[in-house]
Amino acid sequence: MNRKYYYLVGLIVIALFLALAISSFRESITPYVSFSEARASGETVQIIGKLVPGSSVYDTSRVALSFQLLSRQGEPMPVAYSSGPTPANFEEATEIVVIGKYDGEKFVADQLLVKCPSKYQGSLN
Predict the structure, then answer these.
(1) How far is it, in rounded angstroms, from Cα 117 to Cα 37?
(2) Which of 114, 117, 80 is nearest to 96 (CA)?
């Protein structure tokens, strides 16, 4: 067989691996969306907001956390999380990022990311 055939097969294999890599990368990206976009999407997305004080309830029998998240525009969103323990400093968080899907009633979170105030922030004298 001639060399052109091997080059062509090599290029096809490289193109297939490149297409697979791009496809896998696109599936792993979870975009930030607004609360209204999360309600309409039906796909796995990220939303960010502040915890509504006093809204968190942890059910030890079901190992489930539910709370209200408030968007930067002041829009509330009920959130349910049962994929693990409550993150440390959850109640002190400045912002909470939740990754999951809206199920028609609430946002069902697969992951919680808690943004806490920096321990290095101090007052300037």
Answers:
(1) 28
(2) 114
